[in-house]
Design brief:
The chain is built from five helices and four strands; from the N terminus they run βαβαββααα. By secondary structure, it is of the alpha+beta class. A four-stranded mixed sheet has the order 2-1-3-4, covered by helices on one side.
């Protein structure tokens, strides 16, 4: 039986998102995550396959035929990483509306705070197998 990887969909033109992907890859020693940008053909195919509303532009975690967004996705990703950030998973006990409010505060200002690229990130040759697009 083939074990399916967890897939992270991210905003490919967002500097914060691209830096987050780099951070995750460095702290994912077992390569549990694969990546695709929301703007890519594969990203759009997965959005359709998982029946994700088209207005969602936050980070998405696809896992076990379910998808998770915003703070829930971020905390589930952090839990798996080889990093002290995994201890932030305890924040999952807080109501999602509070967690997502904080997430949205940063996400809605991400281009202003961290900048924006005109094109999606191009993976390094050694990392290409981790990207679906």
């Amino acid at each position: 039986m083939r074990v399916l990887k967890k897939i992270i969909l991210f905003d490919g033109v967002c500097n914060l998102c691209n830096q987050s992907v780099q951070f995750i890859m460095k702290r994912d020693p077992h390569h549990q995550f694969q990546f695709a940008s929301l703007q890519s053909e594969k990203g759009q195919e997965l959005i359709t396959q998982y029946q994700i509303p088209s207005d969602i532009d936050s980070i998405l975690l696809l896992e076990d035929n379910e998808y998770f967004t915003k703070s829930t996705a971020a905390l589930k990703i952090a839990k798996i990483l080889n990093s002290p950030l995994r201890y932030f998973y305890f924040c999952i006990i807080f109501p999602r509306i509070i967690r997502d409010w904080l997430y949205d505060l940063i996400a809605n200002n991400r281009y202003k705070l961290f900048g924006k690229n005109t094109t999606c990130m191009i993976p390094k040759p050694g990392d290409k197998d981790r990207f679906l697009d």
